[in-house]
Design goal:
The protein is an alpha/beta fold and 301 residues long. 36% of the residues lie in helices and 17% in strands. It is globular and about 60 Å long.
Length: 301
């Protein structure tokens, strides 16, 4: 039985819960609350479901792609899973190029959705994966949506993530804290919130020197994503590997929130901020779930 009242899987992307941290934020300044946006509840398990679906939908509307085409994308994990899901929904062949040190769970999830994986030398990083995808596209081996330069990436968050935060806090949000990778989330949601209130502070999170935190990047200048807009970001704070991993474990053990390490990194920054500012409503983006990191050793064995 079909009908207009029955949603499809793509209709379930977004509208993720916003929940108050209780025990971890006990020492917050007077009147300050920390709210976590649980993006792991999206159908493919991360915040990247939003831009992945939006990039494909907008490309279809422009006639750039059509079902049956091959899509090629460089990814460190979550975007690849989200694109693999979206490609399965829409009927595309999906080829994902990424460093070979991704977690076992991520690789298996991508393949479960039917995606083909091309693994590159981890020592060469995401920069090499992006260069390889560009070369594949030049040879006519597929269409690149390019999450790093595609405006449909931040547009997804301007359309959905930002409005959801504003609505859920009834316009009381004072700070948005988000890890920075492609920067699509912080740019898109940040722009929307700034449009509603110029007083909202947008805080980006990058890794401290030497840290390798999945989902959080500080790009060399020549690889800085084209969608990055520094004008929307009021401050950038760094987080260490230890802080990110300790906070990830604390989120699970003390708050019951099973999230990934980039969520831990962003939460660590949000908690530092909460101790500094009185009367604030701080929203932190938790990009994904913790189950795709079980093999990495972050959680107790």
């Amino acid at each position: 039985m079909t009908g207009p009242d029955y949603p499809t899987l793509e209709d379930t992307v977004g509208r993720t819960p916003l929940v108050r941290l209780q025990r971890l934020a006990e020492d917050a300044a007077t009147g300050t609350v920390v709210l976590a946006k649980l993006e792991g509840t999206n159908p493919a398990g991360s915040v990247k479901d939003r831009p992945a679906l939006n990039m494909i939908q907008r490309a279809e509307e422009r006639g750039t792609i059509r079902p049956g085409d091959t899509l090629v994308e460089a990814t460190s994990g979550n975007t690849g899973i989200a694109l693999a899901m979206a490609a399965a929904i829409k009927g595309y062949r999906m080829v994902l190029v990424m460093p070979g040190d991704l977690s076992v769970e991520r690789a298996r999830t991508m393949r479960a959705y039917g995606a083909e994986l091309v693994l590159t030398d981890p020592a060469l990083g995401m920069e090499h994966a992006r260069d390889l995808v560009a070369a594949m596209a030049a040879r006519g081996e597929g269409v690149v949506l390019d999450q790093f330069s595609n405006p449909d990436n931040p547009d997804a968050h301007h359309r959905t993530t930002g409005p959801e935060i504003w609505e859920a806090t009834r316009g009381r949000v004072t700070h948005l804290v988000s890890s920075m990778g492609t920067t699509g989330t912080i740019v898109g949601a940040g722009h929307y919130l700034k449009e509603r209130s110029a007083d909202v502070r947008i805080v980006g999170v990058q890794p401290a020197e030497g840290a390798r935190i999945a989902g959080i990047r500080a790009w060399p200048a020549e690889y800085l994503p084209a969608i990055h807009d520094p004008s929307v970001i009021d401050a950038i704070r760094t987080v260490t590997q230890t802080e990110a991993e300790d906070t990830t474990r604390a989120l699970a053990a003390r708050e019951g929130i099973f999230a990934g390490v980039s969520a831990g990194g962003a939460t660590a920054v949000a908690l530092h901020l909460a101790r500094e500012v009185e009367g604030a409503t701080i929203v932190v983006i938790l990009p994904d779930r913790g189950d795709r990191y079980l093999s990495t050793g972050i959680f107790p064995d």
